[in-house]
Amino acid sequence: MKGYWIILGADVTDPQAQQEYARLWAPIGERYGAVLKVLDAEALKEARDSRRVLAVEFASYAQAKACYEDPAYTEAKAFALRAANRQLIIIEGVLA
After folding, report:
1. Which of 64, 68, 88, 91 allows an S-S link to 58, with CB 3.0 to 4.6 Å?
2. What does the pLDDT read at residue 43?
3. DSSP one-letter string for 19-40
């Protein structure tokens, strides 16, 4: 079954950190076969700080977890967390 990262993010407050995250993320995402899906922010019905909704699709739940635990992602994640406040959950299933 597929795995997903669901990311709820606030507005980006550090564009340079966001650019560095994107640069580091590209080869990691490619290595794990990640497919980024930007969801309509209008789906946020009870959000406080979140303004952006992203789903990152992986071929399996195990792959989604392995990507998150990859040391290269740990480095990239530091920039993501500096760029904006966000929440990330990893789920298993099939999203429409």
Report:
1. 64
2. 77
3. HHHHHHHHHHHHHTT-EEEEEP
